[in-house]
Amino acid sequence: MSFGHVVTSFTGLRAKTEGEDFIVEESQESSGLLNVAAIDSPGLTAAPAIAEYVVELIKNKLGNMQKRADFNPNRRPNIHFMELSDTEKAKLIQEDPRYGRIICRCEQITEGEIIDVIKRKVGARTLDGVKRRARPGSGRCQGGLCAPRVMEIIARELGIDITEVVKDSEDSYILTGKTK
Ligand SMILES: Cc1cc2nc3c(=O)[nH]c(=O)nc-3n(C[C@H](O)[C@H](O)[C@H](O)COP(=O)(O)OP(=O)(O)OC[C@H]3O[C@@H](n4cnc5c(N)ncnc54)[C@H](O)[C@@H]3O)c2cc1C
Known about the structure:
Elements: E1 23-26, E2 34-37, H1 43-62, H2 86-95, E3 102-104, E4 109-110, H3 111-119, H4 127-134, H5 147-158
Antiparallel strand pairs: 1-2, 3-4
Helix pairs in contact: 3-5
């Protein structure tokens, strides 16, 4: 593969301790603080089981807990427009024409999908937040084409100035102001 074919690659840190196992227990120093730490691989695979175990620990700690009758553990999945059938696409565009507007050409992501991940619960607030949830900028051009358009959408939907849109963390601003 030529160097020109390389796109952004990522590194990851695996949480390690001196021991070999996950730490899932109440802190010995601070009562009521639950440590769910050192979740090394296969932490993703183990996450549902860890969550159930943590619920049991909390139940034992607090005692006499009741499950809320109206609790709904299911979240609506994100919409992946390009994976829909032609009929489903046409219906969605009729309901909301923003699903008919492609913003990320490489990954074929529509404006509707980007707005959806901003507006839904625990919605995206940053360029990377949108990228992680809906994938614009993950393709061949790595956001060269769509990043400014995604920033415009974030600014518009959040009611902020486009210079306030950050890449990821608080100070990771992308624009400083107008040049022309
Ligand atoms: C390269 C790699 C490959 C892996 N492959 C697999 C696999 O194939 N299968 C598998 O089951 N597991 C895999 N894992 C492991 C899995 O990713 C982890 O076990 C899992 O993500 C741990 O979940 P977590 O919630 O404990 O921590 P994380 O997913 O690391 O979440 C911690 C969060 O806390 C945030 N954070 C950290 N510090 C602060 C702070 N001070 N304030 C606010 N937020 C903070 C971080 O930004 C992060 O979002 C892999 C890990 C790596 C690195």
